[in-house]
Amino acid sequence: MGNNLHLKRNNSRNFFTVAPGIWGMKDIFVNIYMIMNPFDGNWVLVDAGLFTSYSKIKKMAARLFGDNSQPSAIILTHGHFDHVGSLQKLAEEWNVPVYSHYLEIPYLTGKSSYPPGDPTVGGGLMSLMSWAYPKHPINIWNHINILPENETVPGLPEWKYFHTPGHSPGHISLFREGDGVLIAGDALVTTKAESAFSVMLQIKKISGPPKYFTPDWVSARQSVKTLMKLEPKTVASGHGKPMYGKEVRKSLHKLSEDFYHLAVPVQGRYILEPAVSDASGVIYIPPSNFNKKRMVIKLLSFVAVSAAAYVLLKQKSKNKRRQEILSYEIW
Q1: Is 120:290 a contact under the CB 8 Å cutoff?
Q2: Distance between CA atoms of 305 and 166, rounded to whole angstroms?
Q3: 155-208 pLDDT, tens digit each
Q4: 189 in helix, strand or coil?
Q5: What is the pLDDT of residue 3?
Q6: What is the pLDDT of residues 45-86, one digit of tens each?
Q7: Which among 43, 53, 115, 118 is placed 20 to 30 Å from 157, CA to CA?
Q8: Which residues of 13-40 are buried (b: 16+ CB within 10 A; e: fewer)?
């Protein structure tokens, strides 16, 4: 009840409370998080959203921590385009250290692109559009630092990080054992990431990593198992609303136990053979049967059907309203 009140109250400020000292914000379809260190009052930014997130992050920080406040560090769950969109600008302006797992460094220092998205996995518009998602690296070599090997999180003494690869080679998730809060990144998400409707409407559902951008399903399964064993009481992810209590535990156990049925797509480029990477970046990508022309036609058809459905619903709503008005006039 209390968590729902926090979520509702903070929506007017474009951010929400996850748990004590943890706040999140959705920008279009992806979340960023701010976590306060209760021992010194400093705070840490987790992920940097899209390029549109820059001003929103600044405003959120000002509301929470005061004008011109800046974090002690930026922690990256991974370096995909929707998690680092505002990173370069923020890191240069704030001049603060940025931390990631060492296996994510090539994609943050201009050395390697990620494996391409896979629009053949199905599930909705987000998947269909994934052939166009940026996969090229950014270059913040003068700000990037490697996370400590002992799994501690710089600036957050109550937290530990866990290496949760699959969605990306150096993906990490953050865990606060004291109250069981998990910041999962995209190792698992709390909505159906492949569906634009689910993502935009924030429909709650514990799901595996986004299918269209996950190139190693064996590692992804092991990562979900790792997170399940933590028995989190709160899960906040890169996409979707936070989820709490028994709802989380039951869904997470089910996802872990039946991962290949619930999370892995029936078809796709990386199903039988994963992309291979090492500390230098991607070294092998399996061949694709993707037909770009056919996919564009499919995408246009999907958009046309969605638009027609929207118009019909709008007209139905208008007719219903007209009938209500007429009934009042007759009365």
Answers
A1: yes
A2: 33
A3: 999 999 999 999 999 999 999 999 999 999 999 999 999 999 899 888 999 999
A4: strand
A5: 41
A6: 999 999 999 999 999 999 999 999 999 999 999 999 999 999
A7: 53
A8: eebbbbbebbbbbbbebbbbbbbbbeee
On whether the CB atoms of residues 163 and 101 are closer than 8 A, the answer is: yes
The CA distances from residue 299 to 82, 118, 123, 131, 302, in Å, are: 21, 14, 12, 11, 5
Residue 248, Cα to own-chain centre: how many angstroms?
17
Distance, in Å, from the CA atom of 126 to the CA atom of 189, rounded to the nearest integer, reads 14
CA-based nearest residue to 76, from 22, 21, 154, 134:
154
pLDDT of 123 above 50: yes
Please tell me the distance from the alpha carbon of residue 243 to that of residue 203, in angstroms, as a whole number.
11
State pTM to two decimals: 0.86
Q: Alpha-carbon distance 241 to 73, whole Å?
A: 24
Decide: residue 320, CB within 10 A, 0-12 exposed, 13-18 middle, 19+ buried. Answer: exposed
Nearest-angstrom CA–CA distance, 253 and 258: 9
Question: The CATH number of 2-284 is which of 1.10.1040.10, 3.40.640.10, 1.10.8.60, 3.60.15.10?
Answer: 3.60.15.10
Query: What are the structure tokens assigned to 77, written together?
Result: 């769950």
Ramachandran quadrant class, 62 (left: phi over 0; alpha: psi -120 to 50; beta: rest):
alpha
